[in-house]
């Protein structure tokens, strides 16, 4: 179970920097010459319009850098998508020990009951969101809790059946199954259900000569997604990547022209 009430480390760092800059500016306005960096701050303060125009020019660059860093930041879902695009799909009967990709139909062993609709399932990804409304009544959502629960299940194809130990499993690119709202909160769940056709990436291992799939400790990945959905993703992902690259080049050219 994962609770999202705690702010990320990046959030704390960003808030800390903003608070520090604000307090330092207040102290500088009071003490000025006694404060370190007084000469630089005075120059910036006297030439505010110049520096403000420069900030407006370079702000898109900073935003672009932030987007790129966020895009390349490794997450279990991103590792799953990267690995599945390069791994061949193995048949269950002949899957070799190590990192593997298999595709087949889910088989439920011991059912869980989902928190939103009390629906029998293999596993679920569940979130609770606060519903915030602005002065115009437009709604926005902020996640305050998330969790993934999953029981041991099996995957079967035309060559055999293999068991999956789901500790650390990630549900990737799967849409919500059930949504409910009341008392200023929205509740969503994404379910793994018996009979669904899915694609799974994990580590093929064996116990007492019986093969099973678990989380890969090297790549830190055990992911599952819709077999049909991942086909569409793999088809259009290169186009999206090419579009983003083109937009980046155009933005850099525009910034270069503006700075001349």
TrEMBL record:
Source superkingdom: Bacteria
Protein name: RING-type E3 ubiquitin transferase
Keywords carried by this UniProt record: Membrane, Transmembrane, Transmembrane helix
Species this protein is from: Chryseobacterium elymi
Transmembrane domains' residue ranges: 12-31, 51-72, 239-258
């Amino acid at each position: 179970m994962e609770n999202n009430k705690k702010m990320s480390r990046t959030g704390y760092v960003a808030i800390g920097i903003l608070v520090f800059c604000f307090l330092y500016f207040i102290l500088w306005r009071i003490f000025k010459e006694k404060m370190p960096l007084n000469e630089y701050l005075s120059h910036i303060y006297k030439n505010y319009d110049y520096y403000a125009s420069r900030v407006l020019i370079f702000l898109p660059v900073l935003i672009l850098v932030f987007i790129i860093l966020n895009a390349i930041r490794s997450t279990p879902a991103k590792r799953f998508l990267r690995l599945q695009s390069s791994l061949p799909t193995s048949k269950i009967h002949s899957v070799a020990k190590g990192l593997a990709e298999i595709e087949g139909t889910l088989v439920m062993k011991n059912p869980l009951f989902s928190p939103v609709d009390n629906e029998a399932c293999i596993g679920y990804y569940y979130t609770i969101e606060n519903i915030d409304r602005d002065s115009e009544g437009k709604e926005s959502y902020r996640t305050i809790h998330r969790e993934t629960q999953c029981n041991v299940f099996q995957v079967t194809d035309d060559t055999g059946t293999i068991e999956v130990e789901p500790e650390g499993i990630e549900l990737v690119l799967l849409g919500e199954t059930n949504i409910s709202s009341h008392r200023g909160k929205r509740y969503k769940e994404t379910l793994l259900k018996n009979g669904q056709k899915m694609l799974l990436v994990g580590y093929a291992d064996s116990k007492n000569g019986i093969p099973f799939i678990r989380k890969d400790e090297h790549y830190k990945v055990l992911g599952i997604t819709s077999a049909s959905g991942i086909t569409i993703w793999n088809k259009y992902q290169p186009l999206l990547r090419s579009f983003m690259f083109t937009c980046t080049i155009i933005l850099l050219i525009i910034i270069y022209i503006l700075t001349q």
